[in-house]
Amino acid sequence: MKRLLLGIGLLPVLAASGSAETWQATNWMAPAHILNEFPYQQFAKDVAEATDGAMEFEIYSSGALVPAPTTMQGIADGVAQLGIVYPPYTPSELPLNNTVNDLAFVAKDDLAAAFAWTELALTNEKIRAEWARNGGIFLGGYSTPFYNFICMGEIVSPKDVAGKKVRVAGTAQTEWIQSLGGVPVSVPIADVYSGLERGSIDCTLSDATNLDKGNKFWEVAKTVNVLPQGVVLGATYVFNKDFWAGLEPAQRRVLLDNIALGLARSQVAYHVGVEAALAGSAERGLKIGEPTQELQDTLAAFQAQVVEKLPAKAVAERGIEDPTDVLEEFVALEEKWRALVADVDRTDADAVAAILKANLYDKIDENTFGVE
Q1: CB–CB of 366/252 below 8 Å?
Q2: Which range is the signal sequence, renumbered to this chain (predicted)?
Q3: Are residue 257 and residue 352 in the same domain, yes or no?
Q4: Which residues, in sequence order, are CB contacts of 198 under 8 Å at separation 6+?
């Protein structure tokens, strides 16, 4: 409460400190996408309101300012002061971050994974150093909901995947589909609808919000199997290093508080979106199937191999030092956050944000973080 009152007391200082400043924020998703609407569009409004217009972000959507694959470079170069970064687009620049993303295939709780990933990247010196080397300051991340089979034909048992062309995202998903005898296909998410429609792919591994939000897979797909096949992690808020260091502490505190709220709103929207998408798909005649025990056991066995083999694999293929300590920290943090969010109403963004602030963002010192 003391920090909240202090922040309120600083607002007149921000408003009176000079003319309003407008900065550029880049988001390669459409304005209505969950990862744009809440952590960018609404975030910008909230920051402007909290500072009486003294701090404003102009949001460039759909890659209008910087395309997705070069967002990290655009932030480093100061083309944008803020952007959303998906580490797999820059595997050579962010190898340790991508290794953590590989481990997300074994995540148990998407909300806990989002906040574990966020805490890890805010506090682990190796992860922080990797962002810093690329000219960025990581300040918050997201987790997608669990990936499911969205297909033209029904997936009931592991053998049903054999020979199927399945759109995948990331190394772990690729190897999982290969282990089942399927054919992993890497195509942009925007091409999945037409691929399913034309028969160039049989299935996609996607989170259920893609059934309705934007991509409208429910218009062409026939079945969904809700087997939880991991999540995908990304960096919702990456700031230019020099920009962040040049802000006043009061400005950084305003951003930190609103980042916590933006992350909570995003994850709540994902949670609500999954339920709505599955219900809407069933109403449209798609068959929504639960995983059989055989399918669950096959996945569990594969996930155990991921955990066992990932450190050595990352050293050999990504050229990094043994990441075992970082991966173990992520697993421990996910368990910590699973306990913290166990009883929260996952449809209440304010309640989720309160937990995130109390256990993480309120502990960040706006006077020193990112400017040491």
Answers
A1: yes
A2: 1-25
A3: yes
A4: none
Q: Which two tokens stand for residue 52?
A: 């009486």
In degrees rounded to 5, what are phi and psi of residue 73? -65, -40
Residue 328 lies inside a defined structural domain of this protein: no
Judgement on whether residues 182 and 218 belong to the same structural domain of the protein: yes
Compute CA distances 339 → 113, 260, 271, whole Å. 12, 18, 18
**Token pair in block for residue 145:** 């909901």
pLDDT at 139 over 60: yes
pLDDT in tens, 220-243: 999 999 999 999 999 999 999 999
Token duo for residue 112: 């806990």
User: What backbone phi and psi angles, to 5 degrees, belong to 238?
Assistant: -120, 120
Q: Show the tokens assigned to 301.
A: 């066995």
Q: Which two tokens stand for residue 256?
A: 């930190």
Per the structure, the complete domain to which residue 272 belongs is given by: 2-143+232-277+343-363
The pTM assigned to this predicted structure is 0.92
Which residues pair with residue 206 across a beta bridge? 148
What's the number of domains the chain is made of?
2
CA 247 to the chain's CA centroid: 26
Encode pLDDT of 142-191 as tens digits. Answer: 999 999 999 999 999 999 999 999 999 888 999 999 999 999 999 888 89
Q: How far apart are CA 353 and CA 338, in angstroms?
A: 15
What is the C-alpha to C-alpha distance for residues 51 and 150, in angstroms, rounded to an integer?
44
